[in-house]
Amino acid sequence: MSEKTLILKSGKCAWAKCFFCGYGRIPGKKPSFENLKREFDSFFDSLFGVDTIKVFGSGSFLDEKQIPREARMYFIERCKDKGITNLTIESRPEFIKEEILEEFKGIDLTVAIGLEIADDAILDKINKGFHLSDFENSAEIIHSCNGKVRTYLLMNLPFVEDLNESLDKSVAYALKFSDSIVLINLLPHGNTPLFRMWLRGEWNFLSRVEFFQLTKKWRSHPKIELDPETFKFIPKFPEEIREQLNGVGEEFLTHPHFEVWQDYLLRWYSPPRGKDILLLLPCSYRKPYSESRTHRRILMELKKLKIYPRIHQVMISNAGLVPREFENYYPFNSYNWDESLETEEIKRRYIEVTEGRIRDYLGAHKDNYKKIFCFLRYDSEGYKSLNKACVDLNLNLKNLLRKETYEKIKKEKRSLQKEAALDDLYEGLKNENHSGD
User: What confidence tens digit (pLDDT) does each residue in 332-348 have?
Assistant: First the structure.
């Protein structure tokens, strides 16, 4: 059996009010039959030797405001012409009707329903828009038409007091009505009430380890699948809640928009595969960092090295640790910390917070790196924080800026741009070209 997935851009979910779902809030117009026909034709014309299709969209395939009946009938016709024998679609209960399901005769149809949890009180709190009785009625209709029911359950919903007890109850309930179940790790979609709850520290996602720990008793069940990541999870802030984070002090050191990113880097993020040399760098006034004069010159030196693809560049700033691949993501492209405004108390607090962030990051990811380097001023809070964290973790750290060089240039503005400093950077890493592991 060969399987393909069709991801439809078919307008907005008819409900679009679920507490946790960002898909339903994506703006979209009702698609025309002509546009859907082109999308279907493009998909089906590329199929060879496929007998199973799964269709995903931001709502319900059976909602005629999303997929007009004419387009649905055309899709079914193309399925039969292509010899598709197994089809999975998604729908809310209100669109599941016997006369509609009869149109799929000749195809083994599975209808997936996002039940989320077997608890009417929680369904109301997350604004799901239906109850268990609606799910049961839909399951009965699907089975009466010889279809199969696939049920989505969300792990770690807000407002749930006991996750394990709730999961056991929900799985036991869903098994009574379902032919298959998917246990899904709930991750925060932007532009949802859940995302804002996450920012306020009132809810947090499960790491992959926590998800598999919660669901381990169901791992080998023949009817149950585990889905730890339904989309590529990166914190993406809606435009309307973004801020210009310009200032010095506690607010601009432990701002919630920085804190959730640092938590993400610890509990979800994995450094890019193959980048086993960690190089910690300073931030810059200009954002993204790579457009600043200092970083442009640093990158010029690094790109001369054969080991450049192995180097993972991570900046140290008041916003926390910032891997190069995220430098143009909010809030890392929307802040400024003016060192000239720092007091001794603020400097101490900066070192305290930054040391903790570095210690946590290295503790979580040290096995990903074979060597740890930095290119930092010795009197900077970033270097002091990094050095102390590495001592605490018993990790070897090498500053590529030689002390002798720094003593000569430390009074000069933009000292890291000086040729002597950049020579230290290049020469220090050039030796790694021949040092093996």
Answer: 999 999 999 999 999 99
